[in-house]
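To: structure desk
From: M.T.
Subject: fold request, one chain
Message: Could you run this one when you get a chance? Sequence is below, nothing fancy, just the single chain.
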Amino acid sequence: MLIQILEQVLNGLLAGAYYLLIALGLTLIFSLGGLVNLAHGAFYAFGAYFAVKLADTLGFAGAIVLSPLAVALIGLVVERFLFRRFYREDPALGLLLTFGLAMVAEQALRWIFGASPIPFSIPPALKGQILVGDFIYSRYRLLMLAVAVAVVAGLWFLLRRTPFGRVVRAGVQNPDMVAALGISLAPYMASVVALAVALAALAGVLLAPISGVHPAMGADILTASFVVVVIGGLGSFWGVVLAAVIVGVVRGLTVYFFPSAAEASMYLLMVLVLLFRPRGLFGERIQRFE
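Reply: Done. Structure tokens follow.
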């Protein structure tokens, strides 16, 4: 029984890991630009579709590197010509823009690739199981967890230990002071958007062999990722990380004890958190990305 519970908790943490990759991008863009990006799921879907096409010629290793880079370039274009006009404006305008962009992106994927799901298999080198005593777990799923941990550590280092991160955090806390020092936040905001959508694309590449690739995949995962952001507190780095872990553990335990309530568990958890912490677990730091 204990082994089965551990396996389900790991599966739940895996779900929390790819929610986290998307949720971190959402909170990055909101923290510096004040924009709630409803189109973030579209970049996740782009990453998966690019990976399918790139893997045919470059293999999975090439796809996992080049797909996020290609999506980051798309993010730079979108940021320059669309997002930049709506920073620090009425949030409703940004919501309408990104909602419309998400719809356009999904229909574009249907038009170009068709509405049917596209299969994308796990690379042969990553297939197989890890066996430790009676515990058996997928090698590929463990790789996904390891990548998520590495990404969180790398992002924390970037934001806390580099000159780039210091400017970004200063821009979040007091953008007027940064401007008074003669530092333009525009290139930093563009870099943040590129990084955020690259994280979403990376999640799309990693999850594609497990969930399949289809045009609505971005909308499907965006809702769950927003749940993680709401629980953690919009704008809080460690709040989002903690929320992803909690959501993963709760989901895993629910799958084992109450399988029919697995999907509903995260929403019930969100309701419970909002009853006692309306701004999320770390909502008091909504204006500070730390």
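Reply (cont.): Residues 2-285 form a domain with the ABC transporter involved in vitamin B12 uptake, BtuC fold (CATH 1.10.3470). Let me know if you need anything else for the meeting.
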